[in-house]
Amino acid sequence: MRNSLLEELEANGYAVIEDFLKPDEIEQLLEAGKKLCLEAPQEDRKVFSGVNSDKAQSREKYFIESGDKVRYFFEEGAIDEKGELKLDPLNALNKVGHALHTDIPVFQNITCCDRVREICWQLGYKRPAVPQSMYIYKNAGIGGEVIPHQDASYLFTEPNSTLGFWIALQDATQQNGCLQFIKGSHKSGVHRRYIRNPDTKSEELLVYDRAAPIYPQSSFTPLPVNAGTLVLIHGNVVHKSDLNRSNKSRHAYTFHIVETQNTKWSEENWLQPPKDKEFPIFYEAE
Ligand SMILES: O=C(O)CCC(=O)C(=O)O
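Above are the sequence and the 2-oxoglutaric acid SMILES. Below is the predicted complex in structure-token form.
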């Protein structure tokens, strides 16, 4: 298995493992996702996307401080001008992150399970750590677009070691916004980075270091998968997902791992480990 997984990842920039989760594990995570919706804040709700509003700075602060917390990001279309919910709370969230893997047992159990460790081992990780995790909702009719990006733009290590584990909790189709990849694009380096603003006097806490590259739609290959499928995502592969205009939601649980042996986590990354701590380590190879 080790070679075929590595080969697939090296050839395409992603690899697929069907039936990674058992039906009861999927159910547990979906239940946990529902519970998060009901626990989301009732006031001062923060949306995930959107730029240049007067609320941008407080939203960025909420985001930048979310690394070791469970924080809730709403869909832009779910909240009115007064900050009130326009929708059923079960349909209003874009995502929750970024410490589900440390703070909520059901997510912790899946993230740290032997199947995940085995994959890291097979891929040659020596001292893998988990910097973040997210529950992504992509709800029916409202789930937002995820723009084309490379995960290493946000979670940069030298040398590159970022690997995404993306697990479909519901069937992901072209209609409800499955992942789409530019096959082989992980071979072209990191195209831009999203960093803490070096200008500390600026109101913008986080900035891109260059403009977004243009990736033609024709270069993307959609990857529909069934619930329970794990997609491994190379840190440098360009991928995206479209708006969900269908009547079926497309929930997913995702987390990342990075190497910590002879590898440097960038101090410019938006996400930093808590002071004097490391991100949780899976194992240490001898
Ligand atoms: O779930 C999605 O739609 C996008 C997820 C993604 O791009 C990521 O986790 O890097």
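Residues 136, 138, 146, 151, 164, 166, 239, 241, 252, 254 surround 2-oxoglutaric acid (CB under 6 Å).
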